[in-house]
Design brief:
A hairpin with a 4-residue loop joins strand 3 and strand 4. This protein is of the alpha+beta class and 303 residues long. Helices cover 20% and strands 31% of the residues. The model is unreliable at 1-21 (pLDDT under 50).
């Protein structure tokens, strides 16, 4: 592994255990393989010691081997990384951590997710959607953020559905026009067709591929009339047309973490908004949809 890959793998953070709401304050831990498609195990803790870290919780619940002075996870319950760009990465509340697992504290309500996957296309995935309703409830590093909702003028129905879903989990949103920006101290949710949102920074990152956004999907055509689904190597393996939608997240924006609910057309945006539920997003890095059919991406790992 390269030095940057080692640092990135140690630092990543997120989660995706269970659909629906957890009991207040309970910390959940999920371990999967292949971008969430193969479960390895799970655990939960009601009481959190003051010195609790992501690494200590993992070691109490699973058999773990480490490298590089104990800071890098080599194997969990016998599932090991390899020299062929296959390694363990972890997420806390769906957001990449800034420290290694041994230095990342656990806060009440955190959802921690370890996944063993191929990092050929990118060694950093800044945010994932499979932890929903996190990070909207418990936030990042123990800090909860206000949520802003940016809606395109032709996405009123989809925006109403998103607002209703967030309200059901106790999250109030401040609505504003698309392109306004969420600000560095808030979580942004952007809703609209690809034509509406393509000028947004998160959309620009997605256009540049997984190495920039961590999202294994991209829109094609002058107005985004088709949605291309990528495999772990970053190659297009399927293309969706009319009625296709996408739910994706990234933390690499100048204004802070953001979620994008978009589609090839209004029907695609509505289909994506309907998929904003814990059950449908569970353990998915990002989710493409067409009607009520779900396509977790990267696609090859989910097939």
């Amino acid at each position: 592994m390269t030095a940057v890959a080692i640092v990135s793998a140690i630092a990543i953070a997120g989660c995706g255990l269970g659909a629906g709401k957890s009991a207040p304050g309970v910390v959940t831990l999920a371990v999967t393989r292949d971008f969430g498609t193969a479960p390895v195990g799970s655990a939960a803790e009601k009481s959190i010691p003051g010195s609790q870290t992501v690494m200590r919780m993992l070691e109490r619940s699973f058999k773990v081997t480490t490298r590089y002075g104990g800071g890098f996870v080599q194997s969990i319950d016998g599932h090991a990384g390899s020299s062929s760009r296959l390694d363990w990465f972890y997420y806390v509340n769906g957001i990449e951590a800034t420290l290694g697992a041994a230095g990342t504290s656990v806060n009440k309500g955190d959802r921690i997710w370890w996944d063993l996957h191929d990092w050929t296309a990118t060694d950093s995935i800044p945010a994932v959607v499979g932890s929903f309703p996190e990070p909207f409830i418990h936030g990042i590093n123990g800090r909860r953020f206000p949520v802003t909702l940016e809606c395109a003028s032709d996405a009123a129905t989809a925006c109403k559905r998103v607002t209703t879903e967030l309200d059901s989990i106790g999250v109030k949103v401040a609505s504003q026009a698309i392109g306004t920006g969420s600000g560095s101290d808030s979580l942004g949710v952007i809703v609209g067709t690809w034509h509406d949102v393509r000028s947004e920074l998160l959309a620009a990152l997605i256009e540049h591929g997984p190495a920039s956004s961590g999202v294994y999907a991209r829109f094609a055509g002058s107005s985004g009339s088709s949605l291309q689904l990528l495999n772990p190597a970053g190659h297009v393996v399927r293309t969706l047309g009319a009625g296709a939608g996408l739910i994706a997240a990234s933390a690499q924006t100048s204004t802070g973490p953001a979620w994008l609910i978009t589609g090839t057309d209004v029907a695609g945006v509505s289909a994506a908004a309907a998929a904003l539920t814990p059950a449908r997003l569970r353990d998915h890095f990002a989710l493409a949809v067409q009607g009520q059919t779900d396509f977790p991406v990267p696609l090859e790992a989910a097939s």
